[in-house]
Amino acid sequence: MSDESDSQRRMIESLLASYRDGEWDAMELGQRILHAAIASDGNVTPDTDRAKRTGFPEVIYGSGKTPESILAVLDSLLQKHSEILITRVSPEQARVVSDTYPFTRWNHFARTIRVGRTEMPAIPDKVVSDSVVGVVTAGTTDEAVALEARETLAWMGCSTLLIQDVGVAGPYRLLSRVPDLKRCIAIVCVAGMEATLPTALGGHVACPVIAVPTSVGYGASMGGIAALLSMLNSCAANVTVVNIDAGFKAGYIAGLIAKTAMREKT
């Protein structure tokens, strides 16, 4: 048992003793136990029980956090979980994390870092599972967002098929890859500009297509808003949409679909 867990146990035992002595009622006891059971460090309060509720541990959003705050959350989460994902990581944050934890995989392009407790996180190409998720980009400028989705899927234990630069400006490029995409359980489709690739793709496959608008484009693209609106107005019934540049969100949803499919096979 860790020092933190032992300290929490002693605190809860003390709260129960005070309750038995009549110092507070059952409602207040429950509130105090809940507060004591949550590991906290100043303003940092990791959700250490999230995996029990949702199937996967808390993911750390790195942007705006100090390296010290990230380390505090990591230390708490790695006591319970074998691998933790951090998104939107700066080079300085990645350096501090890598210097502290020996088993790290930093994808500087995706701005993600995966931290293992006892072993190195697997690269996406080495992850093998029964269900494959496609990750498709319209152009190579969408690659960073696509790789964020792919690292997320690797963290979730999902196999991925990465297909890049098949936008609608050259329709034959997508058609040549449709046979590969038809074996996917779900597809993350990343596109900027006019963002019509998800609709074109959706008409060729029988699985969910999770569209990710990117902030790629000239002035009228309005930082990805035009792509977002185009995707929201898709006439393909199997297309759904996440936020602008939200590779993590798309990857996570696709991973849940894949994991559900794998459970149904067993």
Task: Note down, in words, how this protein is organized.
The chain has 266 residues and is an alpha/beta fold. The chain has three domains: 3-37, no CATH class; 50-116; 124-265, 3-Layer(aba) Sandwich (Rossmann fold), CATH 3.40.50. The protein has helices at 3-20, 26-37, 50-54, 67-78, 91-100, 143-155, 171-175, 178-181, 197-202, 225-232, 247-265, and strands at 60-61, 83-87, 104-107, 112-116, 132-137, 159-163, 186-191, 209-213, 239-241. Strands 6-5-7-8-9 form a five-stranded parallel sheet. Strands 1-2-4-3 form a four-stranded mixed sheet, with helices on both faces. Helix 1 (3-20) runs antiparallel to helix 2 (26-37) and helix 6 runs parallel beside helix 11.
Key words describing this protein structure:
266 residues, alpha/beta, 3 domains, Rossmann fold, elongated, 11 helices, four-stranded mixed β-sheet, five-stranded parallel β-sheet
